[in-house]
Amino acid sequence: MISSMIKRRAFAIILILLLLNVGALVLNVMLGDRSIPPGEVLRSLMGRGDPEYHFTIHQLRLPRVLTGFLVGCGLALAGTILQVITRNPLASPGVIGLNSGAAAAVVAVMVLVPAFPMRHMPWIAFIGAFLAATVIYGLSWRKGESSSTVRMLLIGVGISSMAGALITYLLTVGKIFRVSQASVWMAGSLYGRTWEHFWPLMPWLLILFLLLIWMSRWLDMFLLDVQSAAGLGLRVETMRVLFLLMSVGLAGSAVSMAGTIGFVGLMAPHMAKHLAGSRSLVRLPIAALLGGLIVMLADLAGRTWFAPYEIPAGLITAIIGAPYMMYLLLRRRGI
Predict the structure, then answer these.
(1) Which InterPro entries match (predicted)?
(2) pTM: predicted TM-score of the whole model, two decimal places
């Protein structure tokens, strides 16, 4: 009976979040320099809209909002993985250094290799995030297993600082046009995102999400202590590396298309845990939907609140996320 109630609650939460995401998508398509009536937006999305609005909806606004949704999903899923495998609520792609590693690699390519095709950029970001994760995991390794999660987080902060210094150097020595593009991208902006950004990101998110759902039972074992998890047959360090690589793929691909949109990977997993508990099979899709919703709403706020100026979505999420992180730190004074 209790299990049935939990399933119904989870289904209801997912359904509500799906409706909220659809509502956020429609609002993003409606509002802008030129407002479009909601009925016209819905008709156009169903393929029966006025040709007058077709270009604005399908070529300018829809790919931007859908790319933002995927970016939010990727960051939220990456954060959920990190918080589970480290058993630390402060773990996120931004805090642990994955976002910074991915960003440094992408900025290097943007500044030094201007003709590099955008469709391959997720692989560049993956390499950068992978190198950051390798250094973090390697430096935290002690006596045949990874050391305390606090040590991993502190090393991640150091990696973020080093990556930030590299980015600053690249922006200093690069050509002004490429530096300007990289600076806008670094701010976490979805400005100018097209289908060229959406389609390369889609397979990363879809494949890794389905793989995570399939492996959710193993992810749940990290909620136990190491001895108990090993007693149940989990190869703790092997699976930790595998899940870390999945987090690298999700965070790196998201960063490659939208820059460093911070705190989404910190906030969304917490909200999902509060709504649905710790079971990964339920927490993962809820966190993904929350992450997508946060980024879409942040982009909408950045476009409309300060019009005619446009504020990057990353700045909006930072304004919300920084106080939230301080709240978490105050709750964990023993860290």
Answers:
(1) ABC_BtuC-like, ABC_transptr_permease_BtuC
(2) 0.92
Can you tell me the distance from the alpha carbon of 211 to that of 191, in angstroms, rounded to the nearest whole number?
31
CA dist 20 → 14, 16, 174 (Å): 10, 6, 42
Q: What percent of the chain has pLDDT over 70?
A: 92
| Stretch 144-170: mean pLDDT | 77
Q: Note whether 315 and 184 are within 8 A (CB).
A: no
Contacts of 21 (CB under 8 A, 6+ apart): 69, 289, 292, 293, 296
| Alpha-carbon gap, residue 241 to 51, rounded angstroms | 50
Q: Is 144 helix (H, G, I), strand (E, B) or coil?
A: coil
Let me know the angle formed at the C-alpha of 157 by 155 and 161, rounded to the nearest 5 degrees: 115
CA dihedral 298, 304, 305, 308 (to 10 degrees): 130
The answer to whether 265 and 73 have CB atoms below 8 angstroms apart is no
Whether the bond into 312 is cis, omega within 30 of 0: no
* Count of CB atoms situated within 10 Å of the CB of 188: 27
Closest CA relative to residue 75, chosen from 213, 217, 227, 258: 258
Measure the CA dihedral 151/152/158/162, to 10°: 160
145 beta partners: 142
Evaluate whether 291 touches 73 at the Cβ level (below 8 Å): yes
pLDDT tens-digit readout, 276-321: 888 899 999 999 999 999 999 999 999 888 777 888 888 899 888 8
Handedness of CA 291, 297, 300, 305 (dihedral sign): negative
